[in-house]
Amino acid sequence: QNLVNLLMPLSVQLKFEQKNIKELDKLRNIFYKISIIDSYTLEEFNINNSLFKIYYYGNPKKLKAELLKYGYELINNQGVWQLYLHE
Asked: I want to staple 74 with a disulfide (CB 3.0 to 4.6 A). Which of 23, 41, 60, 64 is the partner?
């Protein structure tokens, strides 16, 4: 049986490809606006990519829907979660 403890946040590690530092800063501000996100850490960073660990309440579908409201698409690509600016 798959049970979800609603009192404990789930975590997901996601990769974001940014074109510049402003895109990264904008994304970090959006994480604060999404109420189901409890916290996040920036685990890796380089000129092109960032790797975040997100702690959130709910399920992945809910997180995907919340990010889409702000113009970001969350896709699971063979076990690797990637976040794209939805254009």
From this structure: 64
Least Cα distance to 82 among 5, 34, 27, 33 occurs for 27
Q: Is the dihedral of CA 13, 6, 34, 60 positive or negative?
A: positive
- Residue 57 CA to residue 36 CA, distance in Å, equals 5
Average pLDDT per run of 10 along the chain, which is 87 residues long?
A: 68 93 93 96 93 93 95 90 87
- Please list, in sequence order, all residues whose beta carbon lies within 8 angstroms of the beta carbon of residue 24, skipping any fewer than 6 positions away: 16, 18, 45, 50
Residues making up the chain, counted from first to last = 87
CA distance 84 to 67: 10
